[in-house]
Specification:
Blueprint lengths: L2 E14 L2 E14 L3 E6 L5 H8 L7 E6 L2 E2 L5 H8 L2 E4 L11 H11 L4 H14 L15 H13 L5 E5 L7 H18 L2 E5 L11 E6 L2 E6 L1 H5 L2 H6 L6 H11 L11 H14 L1
Parallel strand pairs: 3-8, 3-9, 6-7, 7-8
Antiparallel strand pairs: 1-2, 1-4, 4-5, 9-10
Helix pairs in contact: 3-4, 3-5, 4-5, 5-6
Bound molecules: adenosine-5'-diphosphate (ADP).
């Protein structure tokens, strides 16, 4: 595997009115190309600061950020602007222009980047197809559900042909259906277009299918592994006041009552597969 982003000994200290805040403490991390990389942790753990350091939207106080082998800290502003386009960003607020149609929302960044109007329109229509919203091209954002708005925002970021998309709580404002739609789109773009996805979320279910998950606490990475490895360590997660997926919690409770279930059950189907033989034996 090849890393797309590497952080080495990255620290970030904010000088706030009421003193210093160490948001990141000596973080070393490598994100592999093509991965879906989940980041979980309580509010204030440093997750947003970490992802903002990935493209130097936030400049680390210390350490090095390397994207595709280029050290970002040594680039000129112009070079940095170019490098930044490789990493798209999506936030919990949808970042759409309310006065423009869905199609124009996607064309807009392209036109600013100097793409010809007809070319921009063609690419925007293709992207709308990719996020399964072709029929909404002429609608205005106010006419869309939250999940649809976020998918338009994702299509807008895709227009710049990023290699990696960082999503900072993209589902925080959405209902369960909207959340599912957005996560499905993230997986689809990862699978079909090979885009590396870095996903911050408070919903543990949303990282169950990630390739790798890190847990952040107080500026540190305190856990790092596959979802199965991470959610096998329920006691430890609870010490960090973290949740686990509902089905993992249920399996863990059953284990504590003496039902011999394996660790790290992440899906309902896994729980059923493990439970049914036990129930049949009794
Ligand atoms: P998370 O995304 O995990 O909620 P953040 O990265 O937003 O955490 O914040 C980490 C810590 O850094 C928090 O204590 C937060 O208050 C502080 N922080 C973040 N941004 C700033 C800023 N611009 N100025 C001062 N403190 C900040």
């Amino acid at each position: 595997m090849e890393p797309i982003i590497e952080l080495t000994h990255v620290s970030k200290t904010f000088h706030a009115q009421n003193g210093e805040v160490e948001a990141l403490r000596d973080i070393s991390l490598s994100i592999e190309k093509g991965d879906i990389f989940g980041i979980i942790g309580l509010s204030g753990a440093g997750k947003s600061t970490l992802v903002r350091c990935l493209n130097l939207l936030e400049k680390p106080t210390d350490g090095e950020v390397v994207v595709n082998g280029n050290s970002l800290m040594s680039l000129s502003n112009k070079q940095l602007r170019k490098e930044r386009q490789r990493i798209g960003m999506i936030f919990q607020h949808f970042n759409l222009l309310m006065q423009r149609t869905v199609l124009d929302n996607i064309c807009f960044p392209l036109e600013i980047a100097g793409v010809k109007k007809s070319e921009a329109r063609k690419r925007a229509l293709e992207l709308l197809e990719v996020v399964d919203l072709s029929e909404k091209a002429k609608a205005y954002p106010a006419q869309l559900s939250g999940g649809q708005k976020q998918r338009v925002a994702i299509a807008g970021v895709m227009a710049m042909k990023p290699e990696c998309i960082v999503l900072d709580e993209p589902t925080a404002m959405l209902d369960p259906n909207g959340r599912k739609e957005v996560i499905r789109t993230v997986h689809e773009l990862n699978r079909v277009e090979g885009i590396t996805m870095v996903l911050i979320t408070h919903y543990m279910e949303e990282v169950v299918d990630a390739d790798r998950v890190i847990v952040m606490d107080d500026g540190h990475i305190v856990m790092d592994g596959t979802p199965k490895e991470i959610f096998s360590r329920v006691e430890e997660l609870k010490q960090y006041r973290m949740d686990v997926p509902q089905v993992t919690e249920l399996a863990w409770e059953l284990q504590k009552k003496g039902i011999p279930l394996p660790d790290g059950i992440l899906r309902k189907s896994e729980l059923l597969d493990a439970l049914v033989p036990i129930l049949k034996e009794e």
